[in-house]
């Protein structure tokens, strides 16, 4: 599920020009021969200034609709997780991914702009659910000593999915005029594999015993649980502090500026003089994956709080370095290397802490009763901030009077440093945000490494430390089973 989420995040970017060409052909606003400008050869897409407004609108919607779908479905994570169970819930929603993959894979058979947008909407809806159900399930089945490492695997699978989409999205693989629809259609392939494998996975024992009261089934999952659970609203004063921390953790992930790197690294590398920027972008994906593995190895040793502080602080320094490099790269040729090094280090620090940890720390901050609702709200915050930050320019784009103004606003809103209204200083804004998040986490976020769920809750409630034998699951066989 996590791999599919990452693949769907990255797959739409590589074949943009090819997809726009097919949109234009389908809409009848551009033909391969008669509408080609004199300086454009056959088979190429027209330059940005000559794209038809309808093409820009449909392309923007193709990108934005994914976040909208995730934003809407994130509210349903708690309901599906409790109604069908963690495993059956993930198994049930796979049908959405398969349908979405088929729509995009068969998009050349009808109107590609309609089928791709519909498929992306359904895929976003699926990813909004799986981005909550997966961390919830992992958090509940993981032994306490390995809860961080197993939780970080969610982010590892996401970045592997992004890297995979970048590699097979190259024009000589699938990101070309003949195979782009196959590239998009493969978004649904992991769901087929997951459908085969999920029945082999045991249901969360906490869900079986605490919510359903099925003691024998829970024992088969090697844990015993308490029969009753206080049903307190997630918005009550009891959980308000935990909820605030959870939302801020997700905001720090999305507002760190990392999306500006992920979406515009190719353009930044081009500006820095890299001859093959697409391979440098793939290099960013490799760094992404490597340092997520580093996080997997360190998170249960160094701790969640420490890695998050190191990551945010390092990203803040890199944002400053990136600003300096972009500002003076025209004056000093070696400054382009500073910019590139800052990009790689920025992504590295992100994956050490701020990238993976928010996904699973929410499950650690809450006990069984409010956990699904908390994960749903945190996921909604994540998807909503992503949409506001990256995509809400769509409404403006569809109403701008000229294509030139639309493209200018698009670049401004997306904060690409060469075109943005803040120019290269846009990363100073991110540096300030990162500094604020670092300060907040230093003072407000406790370390959750090695603690039971009730011990973590006691930190927020300013109670005495709860003995390990009085944890959430009273009849637990051993602390490692927690």
TrEMBL record:
Gene3D superfamilies: MFS general substrate transporter like domains
InterPro entries in UniProt: GLUT, MFS_dom, MFS_sugar_transport-like, MFS_trans_sf, Sugar/inositol_transpt, Sugar_transporter_CS
Transmembrane region(s): 56-79, 91-110, 116-138, 150-174, 180-201, 243-266, 278-299, 306-326, 420-443
One GO cellular component, as annotated: plasma membrane
Membrane topology, from the record: Multi-pass membrane protein
Domain Major facilitator superfamily (MFS) profile stretches: 1-449
Location in or out of the cell: Membrane
MF GO annotations: D-glucose transmembrane transporter activity
GO BP, sorted A to Z: D-glucose import; dehydroascorbic acid transport
Keywords (A to Z) from UniProt: Membrane, Transmembrane, Transmembrane helix, Transport
NCBIfam families: SP
Family (UniProt): Belongs to the major facilitator superfamily. Sugar transporter (TC 2.A.1.1) family.
PANTHER family (alphabetical): SOLUTE CARRIER FAMILY 2 (PTHR23503), SOLUTE CARRIER FAMILY 2, FACILITATED GLUCOSE TRANSPORTER MEMBER 2 (PTHR23503:SF27)
The protein's name in its UniProt record: Solute carrier family 2 member 2
Protein species of origin: Poecilia reticulata (Guppy)
């Amino acid at each position: 599920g996590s791999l599919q989420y990452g693949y769907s995040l990255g797959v739409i970017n590589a074949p943009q020009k090819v997809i726009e060409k097919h949109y234009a052909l389908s809409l009848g606003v551009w033909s391969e021969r008669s509408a080609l400008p004199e300086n454009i050869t056959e088979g190429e897409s027209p330059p940005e200034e000559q794209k038809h407004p309808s093409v820009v609108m449909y392309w923007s919607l193709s990108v934005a609709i994914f976040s909208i779908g995730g934003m809407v479905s994130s509210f349903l994570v708690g309901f599906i997780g409790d109604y069908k169970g963690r495993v059956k819930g993930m198994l049930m929603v796979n049908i959405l991914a398969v349908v979405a993959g088929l729509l995009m894979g068969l998009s050349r058979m009808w109107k590609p702009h309609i089928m791709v947008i519909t498929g992306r909407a359904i895929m976003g809806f699926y990813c909004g659910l799986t981005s909550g159900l997966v961390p919830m399930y992992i958090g509940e089945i993981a032994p306490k000593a390995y809860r961080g490492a197993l939780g970080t695997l969610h982010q590892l699978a996401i970045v592997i999915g992004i890297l995979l989409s970048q590699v097979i999205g190259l024009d000589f693989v699938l990101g070309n005029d003949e195979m782009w629809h196959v590239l998009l259609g493969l978004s649904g392939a992991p769901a087929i594999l997951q459908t085969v494998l999920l029945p082999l996975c045991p249901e969360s024992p906490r869900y079986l015993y605490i919510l359903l009261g099925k003691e024998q089934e829970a024992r088969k999952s090697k844990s015993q649980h308490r029969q009753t659970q206080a049903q307190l609203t997630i918005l009550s004063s009891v959980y308000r502090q935990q909820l605030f921390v959870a939302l801020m953790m997700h905001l720090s992930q999305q507002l760190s500026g990392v999306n500006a790197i992920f979406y515009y690294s190719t353009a930044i590398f081009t500006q820095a003089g890299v001859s093959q920027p697409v391979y440098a972008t793939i290099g960013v994906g490799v760094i992404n994956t490597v340092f997520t593995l580093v996080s997997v190895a360190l998170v249960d040793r160094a701790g969640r709080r420490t890695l998050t502080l190191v990551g945010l602080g390092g990203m803040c320094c890199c944002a400053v370095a990136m600003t300096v490099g972009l500002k003076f790269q025209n004056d000093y040729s070696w400054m382009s290397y500073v910019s590139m090094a800052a990009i790689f280090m920025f992504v590295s620090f992100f994956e050490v802490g701020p990238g993976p940890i928010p996904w699973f720390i929410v499950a650690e901050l809450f006990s069984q009763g409010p956990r699904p609702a908390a994960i749903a709200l945190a996921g909604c915050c994540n998807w909503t901030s992503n949409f506001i930050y990256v995509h809400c320019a769509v409404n403006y784009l569809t109403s701008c009077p000229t294509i030139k103004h639309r493209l200018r606003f698009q670049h401004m809103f997306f904060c690409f440093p060469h075109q943005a209204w803040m120019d290269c200083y846009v990363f100073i804004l991110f540096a300030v945000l990162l500094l604020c998040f670092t300060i907040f986490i230093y003072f407000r976020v406790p370390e959750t490494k090695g603690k039971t769920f009730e011990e973590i809750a006691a930190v927020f409630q300013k109670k005495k430390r709860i003995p390990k034998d009085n944890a959430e699951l009273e009849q637990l066989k051993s602390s490692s089973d927690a």
